[in-house]
Each structure stands twice: as structure tokens, then as C-alpha cells.
Amino acid sequence: MSGLFLHASWRSAGTWIWEKLRAQPGYMGFYEPLHEVLPRITPSEINRLHENNWQSRHPALSKPYFSEYQQLLNHGGANRRRIGVRNANAAFCFDQYFMNGSETSDRLYRYISGLCEAAYATNRQPVLKFTRTQGRLAWFVRHFPDVKNPLLVRQPWAKFRSAWRCLQEDGNPYFFAAPMVVLERNAANIDVANFIRALGLPIRSFRPGTAQWRLRHWKQAVALTDHVVLYKALFTLWILSVAYALPHADALFDGDDAPETLAAAFGFEFVPHERPPARMDAGHPNISVEQVKAIHETALATLKSRVDRSVLEQIVNWVAVAEAAAAVDLMDRKIVPATAPYMRRFGLGATAIGPRSTNAA
User: Fold this and answer.
1) Rounded to 5°, angle at Cα 201 from 197 and 207
2) Pairing mode, if any, of strands 4-7 and 125-130?
3) pLDDT band at 24, cuts 50/70/90?
4) Cα 129 to Cα 14: distance, rounded to the nearest angstrom
5) pLDDT over 60 (residue 75)
6) Which range has the worst mean pLDDT, 173-177, 201-205, 303-307?
7) So where are the chain's domains?
8) Secondary structure element (H or E) that encloses residue 300, with its range
9) Among residues 199, 269, 238, which one has the least CA distance to residue 19?
């Protein structure tokens, strides 16, 4: 099976890149195949879910997000109503978020294969844009060896800033609630458990109810959750996802690169002003640069023994950039230079961001 699986995360410029690829002849684009709405989505909902009916800050789309799924909806029920994408499962969204290549998931393989086959049936290549697969990238590489798997990463403070704007300006808590649910549902994973313990996150390994129920709970709880805790959870999911993904990506791209650079890397033309500017204009969260740095230091110390040196170096680079950005946003003039402090402490050097030549084993 050939095609392209773009592995990104929330608020990382992945939708913009995917939309540009989707519009090119010869490609069939599927948006967020592991999204929790797909198992129950209807034709009218597909037509209604567009970038301009919520505060998405996404570029203009050529058609609704999930248009390509229309032909894949199940037929059933007393009134023969079409509902739910064939083989989609809500468990794909939050459960088994971290997988190695040797793990099995026949349901997931059957579902993703079906999407690819739908594209091949129209003589097009599938372009799947994921936001929930960085921790499972090794599994995708092993089970779909002929598909290209580029990884798009945005530094964590930029992701926090974007999620914060969605919360404060639009009343949308999803991008803080979802990481909490992911960590809850995967708290039995040893790496997740170590981070929960090291950072003192208010998360337990078992909570009653479905993932959807827990998502509703956290959407309500976000408003009452300390901002430091919100950043801890978002950063924990970021650092673990990137650590799991980096060794297996075909190519690595930085979501904070200039739009012209990203457009050229993915082979499409950049139109000025397509991407809205990133800025912290929704008021400052109640978190200091010192607290941000402390979270980073604890997390890096927890991760250090679990990853290869090259992976740690790359993560350290992003963390240093995140601290510098946080210092600017929080009006703290003690700006952290991009070479400190972790480069010196761990004896690391700079690692370039760009295409990788081979897949890691």
C-alpha cells in the first residue's frame, strides 16, 4: 500500500498542510481518521462540520473536514439511516495511545486499510492526517511499510498558547481536556505512569465510565484546574508522543517553521496570509517562566534514561525554544537562550530538523 500518513498533533499546523495536499490531483484526503465523532457521524453532520462554523483558526477548506467519509458510512437501523464510518471505533481515539511495532490491533489495521482501499479504488493515493498517532507511529510503520510517514512537531509552548486561546477566547476546553483523557486511559503504561508520578499529575490509572464520559468530565473540570497542571498534562503528552515517534518517522518537520518553508517541504505553493499569526492575546495564564522551566527539567530527567541520545537532543532543542517563547509571552525578560540550560547539563549539541534518510528499526 502506498500513500502518505501525516502524523501531527493538536494545534500543530497539520490541517493546513493536509488541506493543501488533499486539494492536489491524485490524492484522496482523510481527516483525523481516529477522531471520536466518526463512529457515529451522519451525512448531515459531515456537511455541517466546516472550519467556519467553529473558532478553528484553520485555513479555508475546499470542502468539509470529513467529506471523503461520506461513501464509507454504514447502512443500518430501522429507518436505514446512514450512520458511522465503516470499522471506525471510539476506542481508537484515546485507548492504546502508545504502541510498539510488535503489538497487534486487527480492528485498527482493518479500518485504516479500508480507508486506503477507498482511495485506490478511485485511482488516487490516500493522504491521512492524524492527530492521535505519534505514540503509535512504530505500529503504523510496521503494518503499512509502503506508506510514507512524515512527522510534524510543534514546540510545546506554541501548542499551549494555541490551546489557551481556544479556551479563553472561544470557550473551547477540548485541547486541554483531551490530554487528560489520554493520560488517564493509558496510565498503566510504564512511561505514562512515571510522568504522572514525577510531575504530580492528578490522574489515576482507572476511572469509571467510557472515554467519552471522561472527556465530558474534563471539559467541565478544565475551568477549575490550575493552569500549571494544564501545562503539565499537555507537556507530558507532547514529550512522550514525540519520544515514541522520533525513531520511526520517515521525515521530520517543524510546525513552527515559516509557512514558505513548510509549503516547499511538502511540495505545494504558499499563499501569503493563509495561516493566522500565533500570539498570546487572550490574557496570560497563571503560570510563570520558572514553573515552565521546572516542569521541563523534571520531565527531561524522567525521560533521559528511556530514549536514545539523538532523540533526547532533538527534544531538548524544542524545549529550549519553548522556554524562550514562554518568556516572551509571559513578559519575563529573563529569556532563555536556545542553547541553555539543558544542552550544557546533559552534554548535548544541536540537532537539525529536516528529512530523515531511513526508518529506525
Assistant:
1) 100
2) parallel
3) confident
4) 7
5) yes
6) 201-205
7) 4-346
8) helix 289-303
9) 269
Q: What is the pTM assigned to this prediction?
A: 0.87
Could you give the 3-state DSSP secondary structure of residue 89?
coil
- Could you report the per-residue pLDDT of 218-274, keeping only the tens digit for each? 999 999 999 999 999 999 999 999 999 999 999 999 888 877 888 888 887 777 655
Identify how many contiguous H helices and E strands the chain contains and give both numbers. 14, 7
We find that the CATH architecture of domain 4-346 is: 3-Layer(aba) Sandwich (3.40)
346 contact partners, CB below 8 Å, separation of at least 6: 300, 304, 312, 316
- Could you give the residue ranges of the DSSP H alpha helices within 56-189? 91-94, 106-120, 137-143, 156-170, 174-185
Question: DSSP secondary-structure letter at 340?
Answer: -
Element (H, E) at 126: strand 125-130
Q: Which three cell numbers stand for residue 263?
A: 509549503
How far is Cα 187 from Cα 237, in angstroms, rounded to an integer?
Answer: 11
Q: Is 319 helix (H, G, I), strand (E, B) or coil?
A: helix
Range with lowest mean pLDDT among 7-16, 55-64, 78-87: 55-64
